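[step 3/7] fold_predict: job queued, chain A
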Amino acid sequence: VQLVESGGGLVQAGGSLRLSCAVSARTVSGYAIGWARQAPGKEREFVAGISWDGQLTRYADSMEGRFTISRDNAKNTVYLQMNSLKPEDTAVYYCAAGPAVGIAASQYYYWGQGTQVTVSS
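[step 4/7] structure written:
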């Protein structure tokens, strides 16, 4: 199982970024994919998750309305569109695969290496 994140970077507050998670072909169907983030000195926290067929999505309360998760199984890719970014969104963002769309990072079993997102004020 391989997951590779990309799309992180530096953005000003109020700006947008789209993160991508490239998923190995054997993983893309049948697994839910989630995004989590970890800021320095803080625990890893769930951001959003999507079922294998894209029919179910779940978000952390603080991200709903600003972040959108989607997937394109034909491209073996899951996306996280992040709008209205705030300095407190600064973190390393990880994508992960699991058996269901959990709302806790601990419910995902396989993890990518992460991509840094920095939001300046």
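[step 5/7] annotate
The chain has a mean pLDDT of 93.
The two ends are 37 Å apart (CA to CA).
exit 0
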